[in-house]
Automatic annotation (TrEMBL):
This is Poly(R)-hydroxyalkanoic acid synthase. It comes from Pseudosulfitobacter pseudonitzschiae. Residues 110-281 form the Poly-beta-hydroxybutyrate polymerase N-terminal domain. Residues 282-526 form the AB hydrolase-1 domain. One of its GO terms (molecular function) is acyltransferase activity. One of its GO terms (biological process) is poly-hydroxybutyrate biosynthetic process.
Length: 601
């Protein structure tokens, strides 16, 4: 559109053709949207949010408090009204006295409102400041509710924050200056592209809205991601065992095996050469094996932790011993795989099996007495919903877990990418970490419920009440050398909870390291980046606060520190081993076949 066209209100033929084309495209997209919503897969309603009784209890508690302490309610309401009226008057004065300018903005800094118009344009500034005032009032009201069960109050607080985040003006086209500016600049094409992105995401997930975080076309597993050379040397229904090719002439005699979580794919540890823990370990002179778990379908309905332990952990350990000719291995467990490694070690101890020489735990929980940010998802109504879902489908679909984890960081993992994709019409970024994050796996029905009921809700492992494979498990059975790596801002496995579990382990040789950053970035922290430091303290006798108070901070990655710890427990140097042997022929190249299987419920 020319300047003359724009100012006179006349529309060029080219612009008219563009609008006609877009209207036709909208009709086509509307039909696709209708189809995908008609075919939408269903799940238990309990998974969509809390039972309405929660809000009823909150309202009852709120009004009971108001009856017994009316002055408190009046004070809260007067404070809110005063802020709102003052804000309105300031906006009016700024508009009448200064023209199109906003009043002084002393509100909190929020990266959602980075566009200068939020601060300088009176319309957008008024909306932003009123949203912040409303949000603060709502959160304060919930925080001040009394006579309510603490667990229910914490859950109420979580869902209130979700409502507050959802109602941000940045999430709506009419109040998002970035989206409006782009729509004008592209003559509406960004909105058409955004609607198409939305429908594609719905179609990909059978009508479930899971925002795509990364450009899936930018990555090819085994070609530009998960590229460390190696071979699959064993396979059963639970896992593929990968042995990596050596990069040194000699290696330590004791092999190392990593058990990654089966909620996601193992290649978080091998994204690219620059940040690959796999490559780093191999370059330090270790014979490294890693388990690539199967992505289960409904036929795995009755597969439980017993199968993961017997056909996964114990089988993998035995095959590694056979391939290398060693009597012992060093083992690593990451997240839920670390939890299960601890259970495996208890079973091996009770069987008199000393196959594991040392154990390392990456961000692993073994004590679930504190549920932290997951508390809203561990109440009976939500877990009952999971139970109904897995009973129906045979698995817990990866889409449900992805959505649950995303809403723990909704502004970063839901709303910001949704704005870019659906309102701005942008292609998701080519970001390997986000690509991996979206490459989830299903969980077998039985295993999912054992984990949620037995570990998360009932804390049976730490209580010594977990029974598997004919054994009553105990953390005290873990008497071998232990190194635990926890992450300072981990919202999935909080470091203080990880610390508490390590304290209960029976080993007299325990090393605890807390690295900066979170569940992924804290672990995938190569020395070359010089980004995150870590804390150490040999005294584990007090609580987590005492440990941190006495801890020493070290610049740089924890990898070399762990490498020195592992070296002392890995034996002499021997000639480097090539993958497989006469009884373990190479089945295929790394990263194998299981890693590429897409989840099917």
């Amino acid at each position: 559109m020319t300047t003359k066209d724009a100012t006179s209100g006349e529309m060029s033929g080219e612009t008219l053709d563009k609008l006609t084309e877009n209207l036709s495209k909208v009709d086509e997209l509307r039909e696709r949207l209708s189809r995908v919503m008609t075919q939408r897969s269903t799940h238990n309603a309990a998974l969509d949010g809390p039972n309405q009784e929660l809000f009823g209890k909150a309202a009852t508690a709120y009004w009971q408090d108001a009856i017994h302490n009316p002055a408190k309610l009046i004070e809260q309401q007067m404070g809110y009204w005063a802020k709102t009226m003052a804000h309105f008057v300031e906006a009016q004065q700024a508009l009448t006295q200064k023209g199109m300018s906003a009043p002084e903005d002393t509100g909190p800094t929020d990266r959602r409102f980075a566009n200068p118009m939020w601060n300088h344009h009176p319309y957008f500034n008024f909306i932003k400041q009123q949203y912040q005032i409303n949000s603060a009032a709502l959160l304060e009201a919930v925080n001040n509710v009394e006579d309510m069960d603490p667990a229910e109050k914490r859950r109420l607080g979580y869902f209130t924050r979700q409502i507050v985040d959802l109602m941000s003006p940045t999430n709506f086209l009419a109040t998002n200056p970035d989206a409006l500016e782009k729509a004008v600049a592209t003559e509406g094409q960004s909105l058409i592209d955004g609607l198409e992105n939305l429908i594609k995401d719905l179609e990909t997930n059978n009508g479930e809205l899971v925002v795509k975080l990364a450009d899936e076309q930018a990555f090819d597993i085994g070609n530009n991601i998960a590229t460390s050379p190696g071979k699959v040397v064993f396979r059963n229904r639970m896992m593929e065992l990968i042995q990596y090719s050596p990069s040194t002439d000699e290696v330590h005699a004791t092999p190392l095996i990593i058990f990654p979580p089966w909620i996601n794919k193992f290649y978080i540890l091998d994204l690219k050469a620059q940040n690959s823990l796999v490559k780093w370990i191999v370059d330090q002179g270790y014979t490294l094996f890693i388990v690539s778990w199967v992505n289960p379908d409904a036929s795995y309905r009755e597969v439980g932790l017993e199968a993961y332990i017997e056909e996964g952990y114990i089988t993998a350990i035995e095959e590694v011993k056979k391939i290398t000719g060693q009597k012992q291995v060093n083992a690593v467990g990451y997240c839920i795989a670390g939890t299960t490694l601890s259970m495996t070690l208890s079973i091996l101890k009770q069987r008199g099996d000393t196959s594991v020489k040392s154990a390392t735990f990456f961000t692993a929980l073994t004590d679930f007495s504190e549920q932290g940010e997951f508390a809203p998802f561990l109440t009976n109504d939500f877990v009952d919903g999971i139970a109904a879902e897995v009973e129906d489908k045979g698995v817990l679909p990866s889409v449900i877990m992805a959505r649950t984890f995303s809403f723990l960081r909704s502004n970063d993992l839901v709303y910001a990418p949704a704005i870019r994709s659906y309102m701005m019409g942008e292609t998701p970024p080519a970001f390997d970490l986000l690509f991996w994050n979206g490459d989830g796996t299903n969980l077998p029905a039985k295993m999912a419920m054992q984990y949620l009921r037995g570990l998360c809700q009932d804390d049976r492992l730490a209580r010594g009440e977990m029974e598997l494979l004919g054994h009553k498990l105990s953390l005290a059975d873990l008497e071998l050398p232990i190194c635990a790596i926890a992450c300072e801002t981990d919202h999935i496995a909080p470091w203080k909870d990880s610390f508490r579990g390590v304290q209960q382990m029976g080993s007299k040789q325990k090393t605890f390291v807390m690295t900066q950053s979170g569940h992924i970035a804290g672990i995938v922290n190569p020395p070359s980046k010089k980004k995150y430091g870590h804390y150490t303290n040999t005294d584990l006798s007090g609580d987590h606060a005492a440990w941190l108070e006495g801890a020493q901070f070290h610049e740089g990655s924890w990898w070399p520190r762990w490498g020195a710890w592992l070296k002392k427990r890995s034996g002499k140097l021997v000639s480097a081993r090539m993958p497989g042997d006469s009884t373990h022929p190479v089945l295929c190249d790394a990263p194998g076949t299981y890693v590429s299987n897409k989840p099917k419920a």
